[in-house]
C-alpha cells in the first residue's frame, strides 16, 4: 500500500512547469489550482515569508541521506520537488481537507466527539507503521482538532516518527481572535515559505507556550519561534 503511494507522489516530481526544481529556486508568486489544492478554479497567490522553524527543521536533517518525510499540507509540486531534490522521499496528506470530509456534515467540532468517526479518521489519515517517518511538517492543522481527537492525533504522530526525529508545527498567537486564517504551505527554500490563503476558521482552542508544551509532553523537547505575523512556529524533537 505504501509503495504505491510513494510512487504516485514522487514520480516526475523533479521537474516543475519551467524545468528542474532546486533548493535555491526563485519562488513563484502563483500556483495552479492543482498545486494549490483549491477548488476555486483560479491561480493561488502566495506571499513569501522567512521561516526560522523551517530552517531549523532542515538543519536537523541536512546531513542524513534518503529520509522519509510527512507533509500534512497536501500534495504540491513545490514541496515534492524541494524534498526530492534533497534526496528524500515525501508522503503528502491534506489533513485539513480530511477533517472536513470526516466531520464537515453538520457541527464540525461536535462531530469530532463521535468516537467511531474519530477512530475512522485517524485510521484513514495517520495509519502508518511505528517509526515510519524521519520527520513531519504538520503546519497549522492541530488548531482545528478538539482536545480528545487532538490528543489521539499527537499520540499517532509520536508513534509514526522515529526517536530523534523532528516535526514542525505552527500555531496562531492571537488568543482572542474568533477566527484565524488558514493557509497552503509551500516550501520556497530551506528557510522560506510561500503561503496562500485557504480561508478563515474558528480554532477548536488556542495555545499558549505552556499549552503547547503539555501537548507535546511525550516528546523530548519543544522549541518556539515567535514571528512578526502572529504565528508561533514550533520545532518538536521526538
List the helices and strands and how they pair.
Layout: H1 2-10, E1 15-16, E2 19-20, E3 30-31, H2 33-36, E4 44-45, E5 47-50, H3 52-61, E6 68-71, H4 77-85, E7 89-92, H5 95-103, H6 108-111, H7 115-125, E8 133-139, H8 147-160, E9 161-172, E10 180-189, E11 192-201, H9 209-215, E12 221-226, E13 231-237
Parallel strand pairs: 6-7, 6-8, 8-9
Antiparallel strand pairs: 1-2, 3-4, 5-11, 9-13, 10-11, 12-13
Helix pairs in contact: 5-7
Give a short synopsis of this structure.
The protein is α/β, with parallel strands linked by helices and 238 residues long. Helices cover 32% and strands 30% of the residues. The protein is globular and about 45 Å long.
Q: Can you tell me the residue ranges where pLDDT is under 50 for at least 5 consecutive residues?
A: 1-34, 36-41
Mean pLDDT: 84
* Shape, principal axes of CA atoms: globular
CATH architecture classification: 3-Layer(aba) Sandwich
What radius of gyration results from the CA coordinates? 17 Å
Total strands: the figure is: 13
Amino acid at each position: 500500500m505504501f509503495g504505491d503511494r510513494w510512487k504516485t507522489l514522487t514520480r516526475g516530481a523533479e521537474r516543475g512547469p519551467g524545468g528542474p526544481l532546486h533548493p535555491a529556486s526563485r519562488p513563484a508568486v502563483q500556483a495552479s489550482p492543482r498545486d494549490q489544492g483549491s477548488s476555486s478554479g483560479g491561480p493561488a497567490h502566495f506571499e513569501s515569508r522567512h521561516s526560522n522553524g523551517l530552517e531549523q527543521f532542515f538543519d536537523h536533517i541536512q546531513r542524513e541521506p534518503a529520509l522519509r518525510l510527512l507533509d500534512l499540507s497536501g500534495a504540491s509540486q513545490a514541496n515534492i520537488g524541494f524534498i526530492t531534490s534533497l534526496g528524500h522521499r515525501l508522503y503528502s496528506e491534506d489533513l485539513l481537507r480530511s477533517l472536513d470530509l470526516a466531520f464537515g456534515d453538520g457541527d464540525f467540532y461536535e462531530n469530532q466527539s463521535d468516537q467511531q468517526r474519530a477512530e475512522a479518521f485517524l485510521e484513514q489519515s495517520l495509519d502508518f507503521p511505528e517509526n515510519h517517518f524521519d520527520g513531519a511538517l504538520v503546519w497549522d492543522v492541530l488548531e482545528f482538532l478538539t482536545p480528545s481527537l487532538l490528543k489521539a492525533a499527537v499520540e499517532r504522530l509520536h508513534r509514526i516518527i522515529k526517536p530523534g526525529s523532528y516535526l514542525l508545527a505552527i500555531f496562531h498567537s492571537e488568543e482572542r481572535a474568533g477566527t484565524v486564517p488558514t493557509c497552503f504551505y509551500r516550501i520556497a527554500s530551506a528557510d522560506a515559505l510561500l503561503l496562500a490563503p485557504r480561508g478563515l476558521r474558528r480554532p477548536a482552542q488556542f495555545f499558549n507556550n505552556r499549552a503547547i508544551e503539555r501537548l507535546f509532553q511525550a516528546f523530548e523537547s519543544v522549541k518556539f519561534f515567535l514571528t512578526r505575523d502572529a504565528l508561533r512556529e514550533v520545532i518538536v524533537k521526538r
